[in-house]
Amino acid sequence: MKLFLLTLIAPILCHKATLWENNGYDHDIQGDYGKCFNVNGNAIGIQAPWDLEVQFYKGNACQNQWYSRSWGTVKFDKACNYYSVKFAQRHDDNIHGGKGKGSVGRYDYNGHN
Predict the structure, then answer these.
(1) I need a labelling partner for 43 at 20 to 30 A (CA). Which of 5, 14, 79, 102 fits?
(2) Count: domains in the chain
(3) Overall average pLDDT of the 58-80 stretch
């Protein structure tokens, strides 16, 4: 019975995003809000649920302040070089920001790029 409940609850707690990479290889990332993923690359866009904010960091282990964040499905105007990413829940007050070409999502920069 416990295994059955875990099977039902696990997909609800986990979130998934795909980072489209400049080299043609994509990173599929799955986890909870607040989790840091030590992956690196040069993203040219993302595909994620609208309420999932993907925060990009220039340092390992999501150190310091994020320098770019994205949500929804968006292709960036310029590639985003990163060394770690973190998931956060997006709230309605986070709607400002840039909008990429041919997108249904958004992104913005913190000024540290």
Answers:
(1) 14
(2) 1
(3) 90
CATH number of the domain encompassing residue 37: 2.60.20.30
Query: What is the reported pLDDT for 92?
Result: 60
**What tens digit of pLDDT does each residue of 86-106 get?**
999 987 654 445 554 444 677
Kindly report the pTM of this predicted structure: 0.76
Six token digits for residue 66: 């994020």
Residue ranges making up the domain that contains 58 = 2-109
Pick from 42, 1, 8, 3: nearest CA to 25: 42
What single DSSP character describes residue 37?
Answer: E
Give the integer Cα–Cα distance in Å for 108 and 48.
15
Residue 25 CB coordination number (10 Å):
9
